[in-house]
Each structure stands twice: as C-alpha cells, then as structure tokens.
C-alpha cells in the first residue's frame, strides 16, 4: 500500500534538547516535509507575551515572516515547532512567494530515524556580545558548530590574494536590496527581539515579587 499520505516525520525526545523531529522514513532531497504552523500575531503581541518556560527564557516558538508578522508555534502550532537547530543542518526553511507560509525542506537525502534540523541563524539588534552568544548557545556538536544559534557576521578574508573576494563581499554588504540570506535572517529578527524583551519582563516581575515579599 502507498504511504504517500503518511507524514514524513515523527516527534520524540531528542538527545540534543527536549523534543525533536525525526525522519519517519527515507526523505529525498528537496522534499517539503512539513510547514511551520501556528497563530499569526504581530511583533507587538509577541513582545507582550511571557516566556513559554520562565526557567528557559530564551526558548522560543516564534518564527518571523518577512512581512513582519510572526508565527506563534506555541499556539495551534504544527510539529515543526519541535525542530532543533544545527550548524550543519539537513533541512532549511523556505517562505512561500506570498510570504504567508514557511516550509521545512530537505537539503539532502535524509535516512529514516535521522533527526531533522535547520539553522536558526538568529539575528539580534545591536552588538553580538559573547554573553549574548552564550545565552543562545548551540549544543549541536558538529565540527562546523559556531557555538551559538545566532547568525554571526562573516569574517573578511585577509590578504591580497583574496582582494577580489573582499571587494565582492564589500559590494554585497553595501547593497540596498537585501540579499536572500539577509532576508532569511531578517525573518527571525523579531523572534529573538521579542523573546529578549519577554525575558526582561519576567526578570522585572520576579524582582517586583521579591520586593513585595521583603515588605514587612
Ligand atoms: C523551537 S524549540 C525546538 C524544540 C525544543 N527541543 C523543545 O523541546 O522545546 C527551540 C528551542 O530549543 C532549544 N534548542 C534547539 N536547538 C538547540 C541547539 N542546537 N542547542 C541548544 N539548544 C537548542 C533552544 O532552547 C531553542 O530556543
Ligand atoms: Zn552548532
């Protein structure tokens, strides 16, 4: 019997973090595995929300669309919300042309039982400090691991031999039109921003509660 209508994936505990999503059968490269579902909210609504888990305030189920809207995977979300990050992923996210949906696509052939990953490449406003990188620490353990789920600025290649390469990179970064990569990264910008604000709010709340408790 054909298993064409069966899901490509299943959800179970991951050795990396909490729940993870795994290939339920062999998945060919280029397969649209699942969509990132959930309620569409504004960034203001996201900012106003409390962390899903106050003990892990940087945990997030938000996925920002290029329109500025956010998909809240924690509300009516699909299993895609359980996909963990890797710096050497076997999947990528793709926004549809209308900018309303996000597909999880297989980057290569994936064997049944393999955990599915995409690179979150989270973008932050302001300087990417060591502290920030640590707060979004990546535990993927790959040789290519950059140590954080944040997107890091590309390092310039030094030396006259790479002049052409450097000029190319300068041109690209000064272009007014966002490159595909920039656009993709921009999608997750609000996601982190919202979560950071939520963390600050949670901290303020604990401070206020402690202060109240300390009152005679
Ligand atoms: C959308 S959830 C993914 C599902 C998650 N495993 C869970 O059970 O909730 C994203 C969160 O998972 C954690 N996470 C995912 N990939 C990670 C990684 N490579 N290293 C460390 N934590 C990770 C982080 O807390 C992140 O904010
Ligand atoms: Zn990593």
Automatic annotation (TrEMBL):
Q: Provide the SET domain boundaries.
A: 7-121
**From which domain of life does this come?**
Bacteria
Q: Name one GO cellular component term.
A: chromosome
Which Pfam families does the record match to this protein? SET
Against SMART domains, the record matches this protein to: SET
Q: Kindly indicate whether the keyword Methyltransferase belongs to this entry.
A: yes
Where's it found, cell-wise? Chromosome
Bias regions of kind Basic and acidic residues — which residues? 164-173, 197-216
Domain Post-SET as annotated: residue spans: 134-150
Primary location class: cytoplasm
The processes (GO biological process) annotated in the record are: methylation
Output the Gene Ontology terms for molecular function: methyltransferase activity
Q: Supply the alphabetized keyword list.
A: Chromosome, Methyltransferase, S-adenosyl-L-methionine, Transferase
Which residue ranges does the record annotate as region Disordered? 156-216
PANTHER family, per the entry: SET DOMAIN PROTEINS
- What protein name is recorded for this chain? SET domain-containing protein
State the species of origin.
Answer: Eoetvoesiella caeni
Q: Print the organism lineage.
A: Bacteria, Pseudomonadati, Pseudomonadota, Betaproteobacteria, Burkholderiales
């Amino acid at each position: 019997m054909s298993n064409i209508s069966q899901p490509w994936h299943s959800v179970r505990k991951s050795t990396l973090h909490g729940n993870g999503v795994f290939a339920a059968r062999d998945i060919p490269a280029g397969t649209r595995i699942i969509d990132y579902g959930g309620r569409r909210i504004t960034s203001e609504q996201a900012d106003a929300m409390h962390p899903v888990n106050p003990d892990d305030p940087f945990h997030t189920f938000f996925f920002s669309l290029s329109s500025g809207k956010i998909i809240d995977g924690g509300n009516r979300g699909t299993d895609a919300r359980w996909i963990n990050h890797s710096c050497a992923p076997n999947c990528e996210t793709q926004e549809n042309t209308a900018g309303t949906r996000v597909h999880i696509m297989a980057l290569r052939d994936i064997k049944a039982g393999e955990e599915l990953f995409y690179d979150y490449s989270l973008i932050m406003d302001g300087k990417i400090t060591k502290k920030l990188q640590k707060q979004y620490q990546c535990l993927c353990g790959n040789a290519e691991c950059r140590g954080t789920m944040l997107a890091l600025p590309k390092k310039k290649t030094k030396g006259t031999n790479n002049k052409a390469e450097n000029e190319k990179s300068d041109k690209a970064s000064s272009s007014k039109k966002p490159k595909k990569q920039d656009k993709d990264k921009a999608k997750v910008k609000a996601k982190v921003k919202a979560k950071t604000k939520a963390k600050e709010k949670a901290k303020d709340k604990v401070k206020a509660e402690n202060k109240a408790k300390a009152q005679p």
